[in-house]
Amino acid sequence: MFGKTQRGVSDRPNKPKKSLIPAWLGTLIIILMILCFGLALLLWKPWEPVKPQSDTTVERAQEDTNHDYRFYDLLPQQQVTPIPEQAIPENKGPTAVVIVEAPQTAPIAASEAGLLTEPKVPAKTSFILQVRSYNNPDAADARRAEIILNGLSADVIKTVENGETWYRVISGPYESQQAAIIAQQTLQNSGIDSIVIKH
Question: Interior CA angle at 174 toward 170 and 177, to 5°?
Answer without folding.
Answer: 110
